[in-house]
Amino acid sequence: MTKYSLGIDVGGTKTSIGIIDLNKGKVIKKIEIKSKTFKNDKKNLLNITKNALKIIRIAQREYSIKINKIGIGVPELINNDGIIKGAFNFKWENLSFKKHFQDFKIKAKADSDVRNALRGEKLYGAGKKYKNLIFVNIGTGLSYALYQNKKIYSGYNGFAIHFASSEINLFNPIKNKNFNLVPEDYYSGKSITKKLFKIINKKNIDDFGRINKLNLKQKKYLEDIAKSLGSLIALLVNILDPQCVILGGGVALNNKFLNKMMIKYTRKYIFAKSCKKIPIINSKLKNDAALLGAAAIFSN
Length: 300
Fold this sequence. Notes:
Layout: E1 4-10, E2 14-21, E3 26-34, H1 41-63, E4 69-74, H2 97-102, E5 107-112, H3 113-124, E6 133-138, E7 142-148, E8 151-153, E9 168-172, E10 177-181, H4 184-187, H5 189-198, H6 216-240, E11 244-248, H7 250-254, H8 256-269, E12 280-282, H9 289-295
Parallel strand pairs: 1-4, 4-5, 6-11, 11-12
Antiparallel strand pairs: 1-2, 2-3, 6-7, 7-8, 9-10
Helix pairs in contact: 3-9, 6-8
């Protein structure tokens, strides 16, 4: 019997809402809306809800599919009870999607977007054959998720998703100096794009604002970024000792030069020689990884 669910992947910029065939991991129908259509995040929540209910009606009317379960992904800290415990992207702290959708007689469950992406890749994508793996998201923000012992590890509170979002302090006793850095402030998509456009030759920008060709300064900048990101990913490998690393997120997947350099430097900074050849592969599901994983949230 074919099972269907609705997946909602809330991103910092856009939100994807899709009818998903859970047996095949196939998107039957998907719509995309702006995550922040309004300045007020309560209105944005209602807008996402309205569109979710709309696509549920479309599923019934056009595909004869009845949907009574919704899986949701959010780019926030979310505890093991599915309650949002942060307001980095949206002012939704203490929101429970489970309670929110009860009024519509729909079962809902929420999880971190990066854990959903890992779930999607494990069930339907590049992670199917691996028993122990990490998914590293390098996009608007930097995050990771771990799969081990036949389940996704979420941590004691549910906050095991960050590896580069908090401040790092390093003390150099020889120079008697402290060095402070929040890696995400410099190595996430927003920061990288902003810097790239500062050192761009305008002739290499197309009508849509996309970079056609990297100049030497940009390549040097991206290699330096890749070196830092590679060292951070390698640190995760050194700590968690996974069987495989899957890279996802727009920054990791859309720039081939950065992707290649990042994998190179990750291998360089892995400590154990026998682990330097660990599979480091790109997301197979790409933009739909977190959407499919959200829809499959009740499968766990």
